[in-house]
Write a sequence for this structure.
């Protein structure tokens, strides 16, 4: 454990008699380490294709340019860096954006308040975070409804109890019962107190990003926040080729504070980007390079992630589609482009367009999760809970997806070929016509030889029928209730908690409610 992580542990977990007593009596919650992939990345595009896309992206930046709207400070920074600025249009000379991107780190550590749950984003690693942004929630008890703050807290607790989830995420649902200008305070407080996994900051207004940093200074200590990354936040690009003042204001705050941003085009192919895979990849690369370069203008070395949220459009209904071959192809290509920029890569997730956690949801989700693993994704937002094109956070699907993330962990380990894995002794022991159930090799490894779901039903029909014939959604609902019943908040210093609660109370009293 490093010095910074030790300081985090002392401040966020250790102090206070009540916290120490809670730590002694708390239920032990198992949490898997972030994935370290031991399998190759899928290389969809050859070198010539990648060079064509990179060349075209430079043309887009130099000839077409990008817009930084309602942001005079950004325009002046670009002008001083050597860009051609005409009005709000910024044309970036060939090679300048790539040169600026080179100062961003290839990987970075995001500290958690429990140092054992800190994550390394980049390299061969994959960090899994839950759904982000839905205004609605769905469960078997209440159906589909607008999300509340209590729903938000429930999802944070579920995320904390989910073994295969490494990160608490950000806006796991949008609590519509709290004023827009104040809800970020309650959401941050929930992440900080109900979980000890790393989390994301607010990006919906510049002052809310500042609140995020200041609350982290209370949680971790100002010296830690000044020196380490404790937040990873989502900055969406208003595709095509537009950087709005709200998102750039948040990026400016976080980059200046050495906190990480996911610079992510938000693209529905055919509506916000060309219908072709190569054309979309060209736009994605141009947008990401401009955004990452701007973060480096704010602070060279600021941690950033190459983001790519890309889906296609149904040309009959106009609705976004998920789990399609084209989306996977774009993910694979974007991963290759990110690695050539030497940047961490964000994409993928448990994405689907289905209204229910049904077969359509399962097919679309499986397609996207597997593509993300094979495509070299380093940070996977929306890894569990996503439903209805991101409009809904589903309790049952959260549990179903979180369970399947265990299979990703097993797949990512690769294939062992040491003496024990070769199993020559078992082959010799059993011989022709025998079976392996009783042999020594099977007896030594049967408990962990095969990945086994904690949720899915493997019982004979008769047993399944006698136990009520429950489908997967019902099993997931029951498991969610069990996880929430078993939940105990992780130990926390009483003084830190009180200081955070006082900060939230003070900031709320400083402004009237606003719902815009």
């Amino acid at each position: 454990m490093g010095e910074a992580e030790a300081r985090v542990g002392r401040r966020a977990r250790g102090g206070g008699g009540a916290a120490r007593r809670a730590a002694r009596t708390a239920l032990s919650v198992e949490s898997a380490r972030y994935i370290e992939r031991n399998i190759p990345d899928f290389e969809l595009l050859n070198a010539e294709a990648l060079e064509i896309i990179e060349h075209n992206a430079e043309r887009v930046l130099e000839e077409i340019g990008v817009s930084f709207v309602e942001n005079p400070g950004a325009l002046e920074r670009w002008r001083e860096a050597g860009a051609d600025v005409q009005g709000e249009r910024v044309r970036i000379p060939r090679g300048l954006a790539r040169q600026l991107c080179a100062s961003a780190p290839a990987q970075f550590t995001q500290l958690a308040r429990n140092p054992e749950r800190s994550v390394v984003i980049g390299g061969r690693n994959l960090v899994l975070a839950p759904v982000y942004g839905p205004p609605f929630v769905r469960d078997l008890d209440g159906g589909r409804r607008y999300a509340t703050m209590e729903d938000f807290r429930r999802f944070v607790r579920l995320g904390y109890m989910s073994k295969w989830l490494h990160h608490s995420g950000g806006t796991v649902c949008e609590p519509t019962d709290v004023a827009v200008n104040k809800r970020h305070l309650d959401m941050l407080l929930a992440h900080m107190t109900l979980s000890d996994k790393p989390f994301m900051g607010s990006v919906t207004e510049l002052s809310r990003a500042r609140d995020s940093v200041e609350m982290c200074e209370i949680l971790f200590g100002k010296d830690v926040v000044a020196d380490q990354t404790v937040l990873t936040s989502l900055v969406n690009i208003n595709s095509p080729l537009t950087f709005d003042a709200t998102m750039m204001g948040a990026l400016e705050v976080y980059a200046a504070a050495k906190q990480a941003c996911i610079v992510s085009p938000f693209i529905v192919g055919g509506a916000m980007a060309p219908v072709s895979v190569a054309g979309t990849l060209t736009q994605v690369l141009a947008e990401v390079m401009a955004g990452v370069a701007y973060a480096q203008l704010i602070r060279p070395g600021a941690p950033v992630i190459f983001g790519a949220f890309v889906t296609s459009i149904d040309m009959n209904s106009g609705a976004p589609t998920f789990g399609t071959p084209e989306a996977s192809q774009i993910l694979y290509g974007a991963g290759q482009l990110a690695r050539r920029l030497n940047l961490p890569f964000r994409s993928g997730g448990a994405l689907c367009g289905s209204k229910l956690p049904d077969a359509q949801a399962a097919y679309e989700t499986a397609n996207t999760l597997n593509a993300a693993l094979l495509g070299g994704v380093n940070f996977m937002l929306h890894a569990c809970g996503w439903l209805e094109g991101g409009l809904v956070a589903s309790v049952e699907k959260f549990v179903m997806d979180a369970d399947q993330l265990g299979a990703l962990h097993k797949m990512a380990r690769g294939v062992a070929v040491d003496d024990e894995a070769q199993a020559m002794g078992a082959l010799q022991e059993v011989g022709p016509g025998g079976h392996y159930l009783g042999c020594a090799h099977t007896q030594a490894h049967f408990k962990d030889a095969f990945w086994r779901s904690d949720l899915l039903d493997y019982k004979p029909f008769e047993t399944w029928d006698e136990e009520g014939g429950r489908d997967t959604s019902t099993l997931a609902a029951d498991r969610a209730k069990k996880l929430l019943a078993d939940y105990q908040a992780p130990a926390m210093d009483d003084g830190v908690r009180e200081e955070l609660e006082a900060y939230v109370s003070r900031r709320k009293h400083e402004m009237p409610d606003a719902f815009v």
Summary: The longest helix spans residues 277-298. DSSP finds 20 helices and 19 strands in the chain. The mean pLDDT is 96.
